[in-house]
Amino acid sequence: MTPLSALLVRDMRIAVRVGGGALIGVLFFLVVVTLTPFAIGPDLALLKRIGPAILWLAALLASLLALDRLFASDHEDGSLDLIVTGRAPLELVVAAKGLAHWLTTAVPLVIAAPLLGLFLGIDEGAQAGVVLTLLVGTPALTFIGLIGAAIAVTLRRGGLLVAIIVLPLTVPVLIFGVAAANAAVAGPVPFGTPFTVLCALTLASLVIGPFAAAAALRLDSE
Amino acid sequence: MRVAELANPSRFLRAASLTIPWLGGATVLLFAIAIYRAVLAPDDYQQGATVKIMFLHVPSAWLGMLCWALMTVAALGTLVWRHPLADVAAKAAAPLGAAFTLLCLVTGSLWGRPEWGTYWVWDARLTSELILFLLYLGVIALWRTVEDTSRAARAVAILTLVGAVDLPIIKFSVDWWNTLHQGASVFRLGGSTIHPTILVPLLLMAAAFTLLFVTLLLAAMRNEILRRRVRTLRLLQASAVG
Questions:
Q1: Mean pLDDT in chain B?
Q2: Which of A83, A92, A150, B67 has a beta carbon 3.0–4.6 Å from A213's, enabling a disulfide?
Q3: Nearest CA to B104 among B42, B55, B51?
Q4: Taking CB atoms and an 8 Å cutoff, what residues of chain B touch A159?
């Protein structure tokens, strides 16, 4: 097994075992979406109109939940030092950790999304489009979050600050994610236009995130 | 004295205390001229006297973005060249940038009430400007969370570089999306669309704002260097006692 796939498997094992954060994200997602109709009333027409926005907002907040522990827990038990001094390029290592985090926290959430879409009165036909936007958009959220997670190692404490730092950077993803999901549900804008921009944002963050996070980790370990 | 020699904090302090009074004087003088010209500028045929808000709004918007651009250069200085004054400049610039951005948002919303009929709309440029303000607050919060200055400097530098993505979004937001905010009118291909009677005071005001920014930045950098020295002396004193 190469170092990268070993790290991927290790991170996923840690996430699904006791104390890991794999299912917390999807539970949080369920609770937030369930709470929304209590807050705004069980008006299905209204819920249908704002449903994609609720799903996206809940996904954004859920993806931030376990993020501040991503590197911090490795830092505490010393494994981060081994990872940083290892032979595998740090950028790829960071990307592998991000991928493991996405697979364990965001993918369950994407799988749960159709059920919650049903609760929010989104039509069966539009479900696929909404789920597709979440599937394509959540890697961007995770990989932008990597930067905050790496900075959190420097902070020692103050995991909440990570959310404050990361959330403004996720605004473009949120805008185009919700725009594409809305286009899938209601039109009148074609689905493809915001969706391709969302894909572009994800691709860009797949590059920027690991490099910035690796830089932060490297500077911290000096 | 060559510019490179200013990297030495002591030399910088000497140069700063020499130049700050002159810059301050020049700022006051330029503001006097600019405000005089701005007051004498004719009212707009549509906007009436509210057009004068633009003399505050436009320069503070420019300065808010210029300040982040400067912080981006300082971030490169911290990460790449390890320049000793880069993180001092970045730390001193953040509150100034936040203040200019806030001024831009407040004046814009005061102007928007009579002209657009609302204090706030979620339009591309207003939203991206608000995000810039939030980014400034995040940077300031980061500076205030990490105790070790050099650690904080590196974390802030990375955040600044990533946040610099917002600058082009603000600049081109009025071109990319259909928004309520007007398009570029001062610096554009084919010349400015603003009449000289308004344009000249506006540019004077922008120059005055820039001088104010430079003066405040130098003063804040001087304070930061002195603050660090006080801290080091106190630590030395504490360790000598203990």
A1: 83
A2: A150
A3: B55
A4: none
Query: Is residue A216 within 8 angstroms of chain B, CB to CB?
Result: yes
**Are residues A127 and A40 in contact, defined by beta-carbon separation less than 8 angstroms?**
no
Cis peptide before A188 (omega within 30 of 0): yes
- Range list of H helices, B53-190: 54-76, 86-116, 124-145, 149-163, 166-176
pLDDT (tens digit per residue) in A25-52: 888 888 888 888 888 887 778 888 888 8
CA distance B147 to chain A (A): 9
**CA distances to A36, A217, B72, B125 from A99, in Å:** 30, 17, 29, 33
Contacting residues of A for B79, CB less than 8 Å apart: 215, 219
If you measure CA to CA, which chain B residue comes closest to A213? B158
d(CA A180, CA A56): 11
- Is the ipTM higher than 0.90? The answer is no
3-state helix, strand, coil in chain B (%, to 5): 80, 0, 20
For tokens 């009449």, the residue is: B195
Residue type, B145: T
Q: Between these two residues, A64 and B33, which has the higher pLDDT value?
A: B33
Tokens of B176: 């990319």
Flag if B158 and A172 touch (Cβ within 8 Å): no
Look at residue B100 in the predicted model and tell me its pLDDT.
94
Q: How far apart are CA A198 and CA A174, in angstroms?
A: 9
- At which residue do the structure tokens 């505050």 appear? B56
Q: Tokens standing for B237?
A: 């004193």
Q: Mean pLDDT, to the nearest integer, of B25-38? A: 90
Q: Cα(A202)–Cα(B1) distance, rounded to whole angstroms?
A: 49
- Report residue A31: phi and psi, to 5°: -65, -45
Would you state the structure tokens that stand for residue A164, as one six-digit string? 């404050």
Other Cβ atoms closer than 10 A to B194: 15
Threshold 0.90, pTM exceeds:
no
CB proximity list for A117: less than 8 A, separation 6 or greater = A51, A55, A126, A127, A130, A131
Model confidence at B95, pLDDT cuts 50, 70, 90, reads very high
Give the confidence band of B219 by pLDDT, cuts at 50, 70, 90.
Answer: very high
Burial of A205 (0-12, 13-18, 19+ CB in 10 A): buried
**Ranges of chain A with pLDDT below 50:** none
**Sole residue written with tokens 């081994």:** A82
The pLDDT value recorded for residue B226 is 92
Residues 141-180 of B with CB under 8 A from A: 141-142, 145-146, 151-152, 154-155, 158-159, 161-163, 165-166, 169
Determine contact: B97 vs chain A, CB below 8 A: no
